[in-house]
Amino acid sequence: MFKRLETRFKTRSLALIAGASLALGALAPVAHAADDAKQSSVVATFKQMNVPVDGTFKTVDAKLHFDPANLAASNARITVKVASFDLGSPEYNKEVAGKDWFAAQEFPEATFVSKAIKMGPDARYDVEGTLTIRGKSKDVVVPMRYQAEGGAQVFNGTLSIKRLDYGIGQGDWTDTSIVADDVQLKFHIVYSGQ
Fold it and tell me: Between β-strands 75-81 and 51-57, what pairing exists: parallel, antiparallel or unpaired?
């Protein structure tokens, strides 16, 4: 009985991490250049039995144009391969790619497409757009900070989502007492436009 509960606990943890990471990856612009990719990160944080857990998407692609002097002309399209979600265990990675979580065979990508970028409070930018995961789309506002560093643009931010809004966690996994519904998507993106 304890082994069964332990397996269920581990699986739920992985699924929550996967949901958070996917959402974060879908929202974060990632550079095409190899050096940019090495400096960039997309991490999803969620709680499993009230303990924070992190997961990372390994394959994120972005097409973006950001000009702080011309926000109306700025835009972003980010695509994440959901099967690239890494929880540090091949067994967990396979579980979260499965039909109860990301359903990666049916929905291989998550996307974020910006609609508008506006100046927000405290030198922050608000990126309005549509996040699509598992075929479910929701309008979101991604708060981010921007900084020019040499020839690169650096973007940092955190987006809070609810995994169940996107159908991440089916059947028994809709129970949020083990794997929380709240997911924090944290990104640090370095983009040189190469």
Answer: unpaired
